[in-house]
């Protein structure tokens, strides 16, 4: 099943089911164009994994880490499908297609072998990145945590819908820029959950985005971005310059 969080025509926020061109909740069905699709979760934090694909580390001129490279995006970075992301003024920014893991229950000191018990499902993310400031600082607040820097959605797919070798791709204005598969992860999802929860508690609704494959490139004013993950869905958003 694919779940969707939306605001109905009366303004109420609902958690319903996604059926292609329609969404449903409580016996009512709405045309997708008549509702506002929201991010499928409202996280207290987004834990991000850097350089989890070897070819992306190579294109960035960085070494493959010997343990997961972690950083955070705060709630202000989360925005929904169809959003327009405002890029920081005068900064060089890039897209990063990523599989997002949504946590279903409080997770602390979780062993990798039990990690699946804590996963509510999967969605799609774009880790929009301000490279100018990211490359100039160590904590990446300016580079990764600006408003709208984590478009997320459109649906939450139950775990069984994600193939082990799910393809992940990104298009800008219809042109494919990233095209890979999660089978190229350096650190698999259970390893990531174990490592993260050994340091901090993941709350229900929190998100782990799992790294991007090679092919990242510049975003410019007016670009239309589509991130597609097999079995999960397609996230669309646009960008504009401040």
UniProtKB/TrEMBL annotation:
Can you cite a GO biological process for this protein? carboxylic acid metabolic process
Gene3D superfamilies per UniProt: Fumarylacetoacetase-like, C-terminal domain
In the record, what terms sit under GO molecular function?
A: acetylpyruvate hydrolase activity; isomerase activity; metal ion binding
Q: Which UniProt keywords apply?
A: Hydrolase, Metal-binding
Q: What InterPro entries does this protein's entry cite?
A: Fumarylacetoacetase-like_C, Fumarylacetoacetase_C_sf
Domain Fumarylacetoacetase-like C-terminal span(s) in chain numbering: 45-239
Q: Which residues form a coiled coil?
A: none
Q: Which Pfam families match?
A: FAA_hydrolase
- Specify the protein name: Fumarylacetoacetate hydrolase family protein
Task: Name its species.
Answer: Salarchaeum japonicum
């Amino acid at each position: 099943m694919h779940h969707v969080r939306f605001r109905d025509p009366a303004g109420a926020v609902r958690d319903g089911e996604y059926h292609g061109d329609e969404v449903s909740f409580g016996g009512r069905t709405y045309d997708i164009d008549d509702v506002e699709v929201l991010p499928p979760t409202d996280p207290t934090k987004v834990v991000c994994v850097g350089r989890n694909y070897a070819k992306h580390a190579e294109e960035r001129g960085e070494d493959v880490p010997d343990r997961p490279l972690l950083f955070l995006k705060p709630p202000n970075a989360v925005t929904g499908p169809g959003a327009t992301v405002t890029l920081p003024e005068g900064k060089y920014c890039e897209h990063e297609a990523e599989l997002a893991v949504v946590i279903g229950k409080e997770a602390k000191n979780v062993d990798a072998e039990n990690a699946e018990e804590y996963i509510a499902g999967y969605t799609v993310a774009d880790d929009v990145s301000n490279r100018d400031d990211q490359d100039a600082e160590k904590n990446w607040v300016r580079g990764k945590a600006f408003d709208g820097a984590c478009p997320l959605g459109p649906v939450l797919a139950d775990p069984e819908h994600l193939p082990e070798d799910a393809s992940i791709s990104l298009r800008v204005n219809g042109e494919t820029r990233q095209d890979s598969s999660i089978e190229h992860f350096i650190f698999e999802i259970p390893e990531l959950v174990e490592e993260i929860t050994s340091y901090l508690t993941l709350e229900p609704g929190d998100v782990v985005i799992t790294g991007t494959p090679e092919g990242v490139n510049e975003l410019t004013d007016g670009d239309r971005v589509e991130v597609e993950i097999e079995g999960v869905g397609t996230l669309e958003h646009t960008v504009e310059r401040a």
